Amino acid sequence: MDFVAGCIGGAAGVLVGHPFDTVKVRLQVQSVDKPLYRGTYHCFQSIIRQESVFGLYKGIGSPMMGLTFINAIVFGVQGNTMRLLGHDTPMNQFLAGAAAGAIQCVICCPMELAKTRMQMQGTGEKKSSRKLYKNSLDCLARIYNREGLRGVNRGMLTTLIRETPGFGVYFLAYDVLTRSLGCEPDDRYMIPKLLFAGGMAGIASWLSTYPVDVIKSRLQADGVGGVNQYSSIADCVRQSVRREGYMVFTRGLTSTLLRAFPVNAATFATVTLILLYARGQEEGPKDCEAAQPSHHTQIQQQGQPSSM
User: Fold this and answer.
1) How far apart (Å, rounded) are the C-alpha atoms in residues 238 and 2?
2) pTM of this structure
3) Which of 218, 227, 256, 300 has CA 20 to 30 A from 2's CA?
């Protein structure tokens, strides 16, 4: 059930947040010498005016296919890891989340590579006169034909560095917030509390690793025009800081945080409510902590008290 709930939650998150992700990527990789966008709002305006509203959904095929499976893997691995660890403690929440984040990188990295390339294609054009890629799968196939597996996994190390601690913070923050809010299944405010906890967990996760995401986006967008600008992660960091200063690591942060709250609110609330609905009648969870995807031991064993 963890995998099914994660899958549905992932799809809900993609539909809500993809336009913000497109804006984030455009801002992260635009040229500092000839910037197309002045900020988040201007980027939104420009994309809609120049490329129509569908421009905001460029590359959605890749995350829609990938993120549903990624969330299924994340919530499934996290739940099983918590069962193996045995005790529901903050440290175990972090470790289980980190393990889930590391494992899903195998799918996440190629998916985000295709998404980034598709989002950058036809920038500023309503109807791109020369499309390099037909869709996300065609994008990955072309990259593989040119560069092999190494090309398809471009940015894997930065993805691993971002996702491992990021998902640890993600599940830890959600656990702490839901416990602090102390909601119950019959609480009329339970859903708003779950949405708030999920949204804030997403924001905390992004803030903890955002500079790495900027570098990852630049490495994955590098070579779109046929010329590679960066030779390594260190070279990308060095060139970016030299030309744009340390504020380069906050490029696109506003749109990321605007996206993080609704996406993760929708994802976590959907997963939690599905698990609550599926297990609640026969197992009778006592509070929202028992309904959390990370608290499978309490869910499965009726009447077992929380360890916190």
Assistant:
1) 42
2) 0.76
3) 256
With a cut of 70, which residues of the chain have pLDDT below it? 1-7, 9-10, 68, 122-130, 183, 185, 225-226, 279-308
What residues have CB less than 8 Å from 164, skipping those under 6 apart? 98, 101, 102, 105
Written as six digits, the tokens of 70 are 């990624």
SS3 71: helix
pLDDT digit string, tens, across residues 66-101:
776 787 788 889 989 999 998 888 899 999 999 999
Domain boundaries, the chain: 1-123+133-280
Let me know: does 216 contact 162? Beta carbons within 8 Å. Answer: yes
CA dist., res. 168 & res. 71, Å (int): 14
Q: b/e string for 250-279 if b means 16 or more Cβ within 10 A?
A: ebbbbbbbbbbbbbbbbbbbbbbbbbbeeb
Which one-letter amino acid corresponds to residue 73?
A: I
CATH architecture of 1-123+133-280: Alpha/alpha barrel (1.50)
Q: Please, which residues have CB within 8 angstroms of residue 134's CB and are 6 or more apart in sequence?
A: none
